Model the fold of this input.
Amino acid sequence: MKFNKRWSVGLLSVVALISLSACTEDQTKPASTSNEAAEEMDHSTMNHSSSGEVPVTLKKAENPKFPIGSTAIITDGHMEGMKGAEATIVGAYTTTAYVISYEPTSGGKRIEKHKWVIHEELIDPQEAPLAPGTEVKTDATHMEGMENATVLIDEAVQTTVYMVDYTSTTSGEAVTNHKWVTEEELSPK
Done:
């Protein structure tokens, strides 16, 4: 009788242990960060290259950390093939850059936390910086359905923004006049 009781207690302990381990969360996986979420965002409708035209009210940076013609490494990838690419600086401007969310005017799913739209690409905005939660329209054309969309300001950063040329690290595609990369997203070569 004692043997059966011990065996039953042992078996019950093993079953309880297996049940508990099946209910626990896998602690070996790192939590997703906002940068990873941004990297996972679908940018297939993004205009990677642009004409290089900038708003007339945009002010050139007087003493940018990365002068026009210099090279730097892109440390944050808003889209595939950007992170780790060598960038040539083609423009440097002092402004407020925004992370935005919006419903594309062309339809489709809501775009969350798009980087970056600058203050000069907003239609009739109040004085910069706009507070998170502010809604305003944009005339930016970085992505299909962005022009004339009502956007929600998620974050505002007063910084130097750069227009850059680079070659995608994944496709080998040459990207020219890409708008925008912030100073914090570049490191010296």
Notes: Strands lie at 59-60, 71-74, 86-102, 111-118, 122-123, 135-138, 150-167, 174-182, 186-188. Confidence is low (pLDDT under 50) at residues 7-45. The first strand starts at residue 59 and ends at 60. Residues 49-188 form a domain with the SH3 type barrels. fold (CATH 2.30.30.1210).
